[in-house]
Predict the structure.
Amino acid sequence: MFNIGDNKRRALNALSGNWMIMVLNTLIFSVISMALSGIIQFGSNSSDGEISIMLPFIMMTSFIASFLPILIVAPMKRGYSELALRAVRGISLNSDTVFIGFSDFVRSLLANLIISIILSIPIIACSIITFIVLIISVIAGLLTPYISSSALAGSLLASYLSVFLLIFAVFLAGTIVSLILGYRYRFVYYIMIDNPNMSFFECIKESAKQTKGIKFDLFLTDLSFIGWGILAVLTFFIGFLWLTPYKETTVASIYNELNSISSRNKFNSEIVNNFENNREFNNFCNSNDVNVNSKSDSNSHRVDTDKYNNDDYPESRDFFDTH
């Protein structure tokens, strides 16, 4: 678990001195994304014209344009995440831009592609269910002339209402499932940054592992920005140039906090296990009367070495320096 307010404050501290760089990169990201959307729209409109000798070229252009967002936006997302994570960790951003994500192009592209497919599955399933429901409704409508008018009058309104509620419930369920899956893979790009040797699929699985039990907290984090979102809309969307880096840096802070805790716990556990299984350490303790306190909780192990960290016990200092 994590504290939303603390991470938002850490995000603001991290952005202090980095606002100009993050706002500029947000603007670059937004302009390129909108340009790609325009290219896709142009490609689809071009294919609607009359048949001509240019039709094969137009169709090819439309096909290529449909893949441009994945090819370009995916590494840019990774680059944007890296900028936010650097800011949180106090690393100077200098003149870096979202294009640094292209240094990890293949993993970013494949991860984005797989996640997009996974997130689309609930929507596709809901669309299929809705189509089936509509087909059943049409068939039922064709059969209405064969139903007595009294029975039809009493059930027609209820039938249409039931169909509407069913379709609404199906799409609501699909939206909720997609939302949950989105939070499940929220840390993928951060994990890529910290683990350059990890495959894209391993990063996806690791994100699912790290977000287990905190998806609702991540949802509440996004919900806490709703007031700023309304203000950003009132500024004709210009405010999103500041809100977007604020949100991204907050999520980066959450990831950094959770991984710092996990790393410390893992390190402490390894140290304790190594000490307990180290015969040389045990012999040292016995010969120098070192007090080792060990509890059932792995985080509660403590070695009382304070009185040995002085010039009177050089052998104890040498031991801990080498171990």
